[in-house]
Every structure is written in structure tokens, then in C-alpha cells.
Amino acid sequence: MAGNGEGTGTRRDALDRLLRLGTLPVAATALTGTVALYMALVAFGNITDFGTNQQFVQHVLAMDTTFKDPQLMWRAITSPALQNAAYVAIIVWEVLTASLLALATFLWAAGLRHETYDRARRASTLGLVMMLLLFGLGFIGIGGEWFAMWQSSDWNGLDAASRNVALAAFVLIVIHLPGATLAERTAAPRGQ
After folding, report:
1. Which of 65, 98, 109, 149 has a CA 20 to 30 Å removed from the CA of 10?
2. For 80-129, how does the pLDDT look when each residue is reduced to its tens digit (9 = 90+)?
């Protein structure tokens, strides 16, 4: 019965289903989920191995490995209580960011069924902006410039922060690209 065309239609349907995985919303779902998992792992690492990055925050805020320029050292925060409060605030921000991006991933996945992505895009945008604020404003701006982290050879997190800013910015751009859904809706039905 291969001559009746049923096998060709089934293969074409299977190929169409497979090719739907190559759409921009699927890519946005995967990228958002990847960043959500990454942020969750960062937060988990900071919670379960509290002391490692606590030292990083303490040294950056204390500015004890910088050039110790008297014109800058007044900025140093040497109070352990304030240093720990800043570190806990960073972890809370990471947890909130990861949670929001996990929600956004769920919304993207749910949106794939109905081709509605507005809520997913907004949730992703908020989570990614939170990530940009943490690593761009927090680590690059405040840590790197205000606390002169760039001067430290031991406690310099600017490369890692820059990678995180680039990742968040890339995903933010992808989720705001014009999707193919309009073209799919207006395309002629198969066979015409």
C-alpha cells in the first residue's frame, strides 16, 4: 500500500513536527531554561559553599588587594556584618532571578502549545534584566569601578561578570527577535 501516498504524508507530518523544534520560540525556551539552570546552580553553589565566594565579596569590599590609593580607600567597607549582608543580598537576588527565569521557561513551554509568548517574553525580560543588573551594575560597575576590583590580581571577577552580561544580553536579544509565528499563520495551507 505504499503507492497510495499514506507513507509520504506520515513522513511529511513527522518531518513537520521535527522542524517545529527549529522555531525561534523553541530556541527562546531552551535559552531561557539554560540561563535559569545556570543561575540556580550559581545560587546553589553560593548557598552550599557559602565561604568561598563570601571571601571574594569581603576582599572586594575591603579593597585590601587593590593598589590602596588613599584617594580611593575611603570607599572600602571593612565591617564583616556589612560584607555578609551584601553577600546574602547577592544570593537572594540570584535565587529570585533563577526562580523568575524558571517561571519564564515554563511560560515559554506552555506558550508553544498556543503560540502565545507575551507573558513568557515579559517574564524572561525581567529575569534577564535582573541578571544584567547583578553582573553589569553590581559586579562590573560597583565592584569593578567603585571598589576598584580591576586592580586586584587575586579577587578580580570582571571576566566572569562580563561573560554573564554577554549571556544575558544575547538571550534578551533572541527573545525579542520578531518570531516566525506571524509568517506561519499567514502561510498558505499545505498543498496550495
Report:
1. 109
2. 999 999 999 999 999 999 999 999 999 999 999 888 999 999 999 999 99
The secondary structure of residue 154, as a DSSP letter, is S
What's the first-to-final CA gap in the chain, in angstroms?
25
CA distance 101 to 107: 10
Q: How many CB atoms lie within 10 A of CB 39?
A: 27
DSSP secondary structure letter of residue 160? H
Element (H, E) at 78: none
- Residue 128 has which C-alpha cell? 534577564
Cα 31 from Cα 29, distance rounded (Å):
6
Give residue for cell 513536527: 17
- Extract the C-alpha cell encoding 24: 525561534
Distance separating alpha carbons of residues 49 and 117, to the nearest angstrom: 37
Q: Does the pLDDT of residue 180 top 50, yes or no?
A: no
